[in-house]
Design brief:
The protein has helices at 6-13, 28-41, 52-65, 139-155, 176-184, 241-254, 263-272, 278-289, 294-301, 304-310, 346-357, 381-392, 411-416, 448-462; strands at residues 73-77, 84-90, 100-105, 124-126, 129-131, 163-168, 190-193, 198-201, 207-216, 218-227, 231-232, 313-321, 327-328, 331-340, 363-366, 400-405, 421-423, 428-429, 442-444. It is of the alpha/beta class. The structure holds zinc ion (ZN). Residues 105, 137-138, 171, 195 line the site of zinc ion.
Length: 464
């Protein structure tokens, strides 16, 4: 991915270049969020460097200064890792009621300084953005959420029940801390997750839609293997391992899982249709009304941004086989990557693939990647109303739709325990500014003030 300086892309697209010119947040809470974000970016919480506890320590100092009791703050290392989970309890009026959990993560994806235009672990404020690894994933929301929570604490606000900040430390890699965190907080009423959902802006900075992440597809890799005795390539028999694997892969490639519609995707299609181009909008409405409408399902599946919401998808992603140009292959392996619709288990998806391949010489094995299955969260009216209210005070009237993501976020561990979880990032940005996991990751300064306010309003609404 190549970084295009804002001024150049602005010229090319004839956008108002001034919209992101805001150099610093206007409110004290926004300024505090920016300070937290800068401090967080400068602690490289990449897997293997052991820095997550250091960042938790810095945040603890801030929380204590804002009035939190040190007894209510803990960092728990997870055995066998260099990370752990961080819990902050904000005592509420009813200490017996199930707590509301706010989840974010402190770790970031690796970044190679030599590939970046600026040092990824130095927070640089430039052209209306904060640059640095984690600026958007997930230190931006962590900072805005913490600034809102500290503001509430200082103001003397007491939530109706306990508010628990449940913060993981290896969301981007093995999610061991997430598994332990979810276990430690399994009595939660619900989870709101800052690392999912969010607002999309048009190229001219107008809000287009706000998404609430309420489900994610489960992830699975299946390894296909074909073995054979091999031999000299001048003496072929009736069976060839590469030939057999090719036929198997062609079948997988051609196979389409049946279209599916859930309460969440139905609401997504209906909510998205009014802003979609006409031909797609028609297909969305038709598919939401009848998932057996094959023509509508195919029209949506033809678009990469929608295919994952129509059905389970499984695609060949890697092949490896043969050992010499003049030898019959003895072994061929391939990887099939699946993104599975909630409601279908990973084992079931594997069985379907076996039937599709229909060849006893091709073996199929599910790889263990730490991924788990999780159900869709119900679209609770109280939650959707609270989220909509918080979004509307920064973007009046904006469409709010539930969303299913390709996974995987911390939410899957909570959902798997039966705890509804809602991705409610307070970042509004243009798709062009989305560099999470990539080079030159950045957060628009302009999203910070309204983002802190969104977190504050949301917490006040849910915990009133
Ligand atoms: Zn993340």
């Amino acid at each position: 991915m190549r970084f295009v300086p804002l001024a150049v892309s602005a010229l090319a697209l004839a956008m108002p270049a001034a919209a992101y010119a805001q150099a610093t947040p206007a409110t004290p809470a926004g300024q505090e969020a920016l300070e937290i974000l800068k401090e967080a970016i400068e602690v490289p919480t990449v897997a293997g460097r052991g820095n997550v506890p250091k960042l938790a320590e810095k945040l603890t100092a801030r929380l204590v200064a804002a009035g939190f009791d040190p007894k209510d703050i803990s960092f728990t290392p997870v055995e066998g890792t260099d990370t752990g989970y961080f819990i902050v309890r904000y005592p509420g009026k009813d200490r017996k009621a199930k707590p509301v959990v706010v989840n974010v993560h402190l770790d970031v994806v690796e970044a190679k300084p030599e590939d970046w235009e600026r040092d990824p672990f130095t927070a640089v404020v430039e052209n209306g953005y904060v640059f640095g690894r984690g600026a958007s994933d997930n230190k931006g929301d962590t900072a805005m959420m913490l600034a809102a929570v500290m503001k509430l604490k200082r103001s003397g606000w007491v939530p109706s029940r306990d508010l628990v900040l449940g913060i993981s430390g290896d969301e981007e890699t093995l999610m061991r801390s997430t598994a332990k965190l979810a276990e430690a907080l399994k009595d939660a009423e619900l989870v709101i997750n800052g690392d999912g959902g969010g607002g999309e802006l048009s190229n001219d900075f107008q809000p287009i839609v706000y998404s609430v992440q309420a489900a994610e597809k489960s992830y699975a890799d299946f390894k296909l293997t074909v073995t054979d005795e091999g031999g000299h390539s001048s003496r072929p028999g009736s069976f060839n391992a590469i030939g057999a694997m090719s036929r198997a892969l062609a079948k997988v490639d051609a196979y389409r899982f049946p279209p599916q519609l859930s309460p969440l995707t139905k609401a997504y299609w209906e909510g998205t249709a009014p802003n979609a181009p006409e031909d797609v909008a028609e297909a969305m409405v038709a598919f939401a009304a009848d998932p057996n409408n094959t023509a509508a399902a195919e029209r949506l599946s033809a678009r990469p941004e929608y295919v994952g919401l129509v059905r389970t998808t499984c695609v060949p992603t890697m092949v490896n086989g043969g050992h010499a140009a003049n030898a019959l292959p003895q072994s061929v392996t391939a990887n099939i990557n699946c993104r599975i619709f909630p409601g279908t288990s990973r084992v079931q998806a594997g069985e379907i693939l076996k039937q599709v391949i229909d060849d006893p010489r091709v073996t199929l094995e599910m790889m263990d990647d730490g991924s788990i299955e999780s159900p869709e969260s119900p679209l609770r009216k109280d939650m959707m109303d609270a989220i909509t209210k918080a979004v509307h005070q920064r973007a009046p009237g904006l469409t709010v739709v539930p969303q299913m993501s390709a996974g995987a976020s911390d939410s899957m561990y909570f959902r798997a325990l039966g705890i509804p979880s809602y991705g409610v990032s307070a970042i509004f940005m243009r798709p062009d500014d989305e560099f999470a996991h990539g080079l030159n990751e950045r957060l628009p300064i302009a999203t910070i003030d309204p983002g802190v306010k969104q977190w504050e309003t949301l917490l006040r609404e849910i915990l009133k």
